[in-house]
Write a structure and sequence with these properties.
single chain, five-stranded mixed β-sheet, about 325 residues, 13 strands, about 40% helix, alpha/beta
């Protein structure tokens, strides 16, 4: 017998990130492979199994040393049934991932939504370490979230709690990918920030962003906007402040309903740091109940792109 391990898998539309960890949750090895979902479900399952074996080997152990596997998957899932209900980026519909992996690995496997898993990672080993009730919000291509209440993932009655990106923020706002109008995601996610910049430039507003992309406006991303804002570009700052305002409205609603002690902001857009967080806190303060706002901390996530895989490790540890 080698050393006892658990495995965490962060399954995404573009990559599978898999880590081996000891029973204290310390990461020992990490393996990343492209998902390539167009190959079909069987091929993706095979990739996951291969990364699990490779991570164990890289950690100086073997498959027989693995005690459990935790997996975070996008889309609505049914954690009790171990089924990915719908994951458009994977082109999956009602896939019994737990059953498929358990039959391949002969190991206990547990499944949770990827945003909940990232929330668990930040709660156990990241910016939420000292909290009891934490809301995790990831702002990147979309806006996702996870709720940790009394130290446990709160998944709701049917596993769909924490969809903070689909709160309606603006009546008659832009159309969201979910089919609703005015969702937080349609107003403040990375693509929304980029679209706003492109539209303003097309309307003739002056900005250094045009030169930053050599006039190719379709190459503007939220990162471009953040970098321009950081050096004082007026238009870029206005766009960042407006996104922060929308996020603040959503966060104030969450504070008033849930009364958390910590709000952790992750995802690529959070890399703007205080440039985003300062106006976001001000916008939140204007709308949240005073007594609740005074007690809450709004902080940047600490684990970066590792939040998902660290959370999946926590999920596997919870299974032991």
């Amino acid at each position: 017998m080698g050393k006892a391990l658990v495995i965490g898998v962060d399954l995404g539309g573009t990559k599978v990130a898999t880590a081996a960890a000891d029973l204290d949750g310390l990461l020992l090895a990490k393996v990343i492979e492209p998902t390539r979902p167009e190959r079909g479900i069987g091929a993706v399952i095979e990739t996951i199994v291969d990364t699990i074996k490779e991570a164990a080997t890289s950690a100086g152990a073997s498959k027989s040393d693995i005690r459990s596997v935790g997996i975070g998957s996008p889309g609505p899932i049914d954690p009790k049934a171990g089924v990915v209900v719908f994951a458009p980026n994977l082109m999956w519909h009602n896939v019994p991932i737990v059953e498929l992996l358990e039959s391949e690995l002969d190991l206990p496997v547990c499944l949770e939504n990827d945003a909940n898993v990232a929330a668990l990672g930040e709660y156990r080993f990241g910016a939420g370490r000292k909290s009891s009730n934490m809301v995790y919000i990831t702002v990147s291509t979309g806006v996702g979230g996870g709720l940790i209440l009394d130290g446990e993932i709160y998944a709701g009655s049917f596993g769909m709690a924490g969809e903070v990106g689909h709160m309606t923020i603006a009546d008659n706002g832009p159309l969201c990918g979910c089919g609703n109008q005015g969702c937080l995601e349609a107003l403040a996610a990375g693509p929304a920030i980029a679209r706003k910049a492109q539209a303003c430039i097309l309307h003739g507003q002056e900005t250094i962003m045009t030169d930053m992309v050599s006039g190719r406006l379709e190459e503007i991303t939220s990162k471009t906007v953040g970098e321009a804002a950081a050096v004082g570009d007026i238009l870029a700052k206005e766009i960042v402040y407006k996104a922060a305002e929308y996020l603040g409205i959503g966060i104030a609603n969450l504070i008033n309903v849930i009364n958390p002690d910590t709000i952790v902001i992750g995802g690529g857009v959070s890399n703007m740091g205080e440039l985003l967080l300062q106006p976001l806190r001000r916008a939140t303060q204007r709308r949240a109940m005073k007594a609740a706002f005074e007690k809450v901390e709004i902080v940047k996530a600490e684990l970066g792109s590792d939040a998902g895989v660290v959370g999946a490790v926590c999920l596997a540890l919870g299974r032991l």
